[in-house]
Design goal:
118 residues
Length: 118
């Protein structure tokens, strides 16, 4: 019997679905990129009211920028519009200005959503 600790990657993988990944985003600005990635969760039947959900994402961005630097942003929202915890992933080869602290454009977006009460 091994005492090896199992990696947490399986937990993250359980929050992804094939339909919530887009490796070729068409958006060229932050708002359009957020909408494009959020739409992936809508198509996965996770979101009940897309307009309300999207406004919550934008409001969260206004409160605090989610660009981490090093080409990555992790926008997120606690919402009543999402039926489960899921992560949508978007990648753009051109990079999008998210006002990251390092000044670099974002190329990877990991958008997560979860219910307010869990």
């Amino acid at each position: 019997m091994s005492n090896t600790i199992k990696p947490a990657a399986g937990k993250v993988a359980s929050l992804l679905r094939l339909g919530t990944i887009n490796l070729n985003l068409q958006a060229r600005n932050k708002t359009d990129a957020l909408r494009e990635v959020a739409t992936l969760l809508q198509r996965a039947n996770c979101v009940s009211n897309f307009d309300a959900f999207f406004q919550e994402i934008l409001e969260r961005e206004r409160v605090s920028n989610t660009a981490l630097g090093h080409d990555v942003a992790i926008p997120h929202a606690r919402t009543e519009q999402c039926s489960e915890i899921l992560i949508a992933v978007g990648r753009t080869p051109v990079g999008i200005d998210f006002d990251a602290k390092d000044g670099q454009p974002v190329r990877l977006i990991f958008l997560s959503a979860r219910r307010n009460r869990w």
